[in-house]
What we know:
Structural class: mainly beta
Number of strands: 35
Helix content: under 10%
Bound molecules: fe (ii) ion
Largest sheet: 5 strands, antiparallel
Radius of gyration: 21 Å
Mean pLDDT: 88
Amino acid sequence: MTLPMNRRQLLQTMAASSAASLTGGVFATNSDPDGAFSRSFEPFNGPLSTVPGRGFTGTLETVDVALKGKIPPGLRGTLYRNGPARFKLGTTRYDHWFDGDGMVQSFHFAGGKVSHRGVLLRTPKLVEEEVAGRFLYSAFGTALPNSLPVRNPDSLNVANINLMALRGGRELYALWEGGSALQLDPQTLAVQDFKTWSPETKGASFSAHPRTSPDGTVWNFGYAAHSGKLIIYEIDVSGTLKRQALIEAPQADMVHDFAITPNYLVFLLMPLVLKPQAPQVGRLDRYEWQADAPLIAMVVSKADFSVKRFELDNGGVFHLGNAWEEKGLIRLAYARYTQFLPHLQGLTLPTPKVAVDQLARWTQVEINLQQGSARQSDRDLLGVEFPRFDTRFTGERTDFTVLMQNAHARVRGNYGADTVLGLTGEKVQRFTYGADWIAEEHLYVPRPGSANTAHTPSGWVIGTALHRVSGKTTLSVFEAQGLANGPVVQLALPYGLPLGLHGQFVAT
Ligand SMILES: [Fe+2]
């Protein structure tokens, strides 16, 4: 059912709920007087001790990055990446990977050379806390003593998950999921302002995973725990909000990603409930997994926002791959967790915990709209995350998917991916960086003008990886068809970057 979009109602159900549920409690101690925390910072020690290290001004810059190999002539544009970067301020610290202040990286490819720039985002939260000399607000996974009351969700907005480029890259936004998109200067990465799409949705949740259909329309959603609703945003190719809606959604206490097809929006809603009354613990510790409840596939009509729901076996999800319609079916794939909450709770900084049964499996879903049924099947690919595909064909059939895999967790117990996979149907290409590396999300960058070919990707796979031993970051470029042969070009930064989440390539 679509509800009328009334500002007061929306703020009551979405923004207020979001802010209240983001505030933490009063018990955890966050000082680190003897440095024990810093010493136990493996494996995040490299990036986090480097940024911000001594003398760090908020910006990293290398004009001409050292490279091995030759940049393919068609690879022109900018890879932007975002992620949590700062976890310590004064005597305060955040404990969970998702809590840190956002830092955006740009790798600009032009004339056979690459320049890098990394900027810690000067959000209102960061500016306020720098003045105070300490973190002032509890975060998703950390309850700070004496956390200040939250005025609105954007007073906590660290803009640290993903990026969205509009109008061919002339507009760039850093995305969080608890509040507004934050507009940046695409060249300098300087913070401009929070984006207001409409008076009704000012300050409301705008997710970090918008999807753009081939005609340039951007679809996104927002959620807030306890509201039982999702906001839907439809933004046209000029960057103007075209439609907004508030729809009824069960199990929408944490919704990170979704998928689109030509006619539908598809959500996978987890049986994860945020307990409303537990003021002494942080937000993450208030989540409860409903082991007997299904994962709900919710299909929303783009035409009238009507909703159909389908039940799948219990499971959790951060990320979906592409989805498309085929003979009355909706097909999609996602990284499915059977132990979602322990996995999420394990992403703590001193000692991220890895248990093999907490890793995700690549899982295919088939929704039969006529019969009103849905089913899913796991593929034998364990420890996968960060699915990427040819985003020129979002919502249409694409056969090539890039995934990151923690292939050796069973052996090493290490957090983080060490392998990049290229899936073409049942065929899997693999490149393993090795035990000394943490590989971050890799993207598929299509060769300019190439078609949506079914089985032969034409383009590159590009991504960053942190070398644990030297503490430095590299960026690798692979030919998509020859992924297993290893990178054709590798860039070596003179510093390490904090482990990030997502990136986008804006071609020029
Ligand atoms: Fe994500």
